[in-house]
Amino acid sequence: MENLCLYPFIMWDMGIQNINVEQAKQILDSDPNAVYIDVRTEGEFLNGHVPKAFNIPVVFPDPATRQMKPNPDFVKVVSAHFVKNRRIIVGCQMGGRSQMAAQLLAQDGFEDVSNMQGGFGGARDQMGRVLALGWSQAGFPVESEAAKGASYGELKDLK
User: Fold this and answer.
1) CB-CB contact of 11 with 63 (8 Å)
2) Which of 35, 46, 30 is nearest to 120 (CA)?
3) Calpha distance 132→14 (Å, rounded)
4) Interval 34-81: pLDDT, tens
5) Model pTM?
6) DSSP string spanning 30-98?
7) Residues 6+ apart with CB under 8 A from 52
8) Domains in the chain, start-ordered, CATH in brackets?
9) In which element (H, E) is residue 130 found?
């Protein structure tokens, strides 16, 4: 099913693929040009992430309001490091933030963007039932340290 986005009463095809964790792993294992961008916060990223992932948060916690606020540099940082036709998989904790990130990238002209549903930790409904398996729940490899050049602290410094 194609991903459609509502934007003030207008629908358009964003060209975003929704994939599950098994599909994401298969793509990352078989396509050396594919890249995984973890859009969670820096702290979440360091608590465990997909191997070889790049961390570019799409939102940050606002200490004043204790709410999440958009990272105004998200698209700029991604664009500074990856070409528009690069195969990009975005993921977060459950799949919501990464959907937002995928839409932002598609709007900016990125051509091959996939949202990993279930994210790193899996998505559950209000009753606790699993809606989408997460990367860590699937028993796939996990890293807790950022590779050189993969942390947001390094990536945001555009020089």
Assistant:
1) no
2) 46
3) 22
4) 999 999 999 999 999 999 999 999 999 988 998 999 999 999 999 999
5) 0.88
6) H-TT-EEEE-S-HHHHHT-B-TT-EE--SEEEETTTTEEEE-TTHHHHHHHHS-TTSEEEEE-SSSHHH
7) 28, 36, 143, 147, 150
8) 4-155 (3.40.250.10)
9) strand 130-132
At 105, phi and psi to the nearest 5? -70, -40
Tokens of 37: 């961008």
Instruction: State whether residue 145 is helix, strand or coil.
Output: coil
Instruction: Report helix, strand or coil for 115.
Output: strand
92 beta partners: none
Tokens coding 4: 């459609």
Write the single-letter amino acid at 142.
V
Asked whether the beta carbons of 54 and 36 are under 8 A apart, the reply is yes
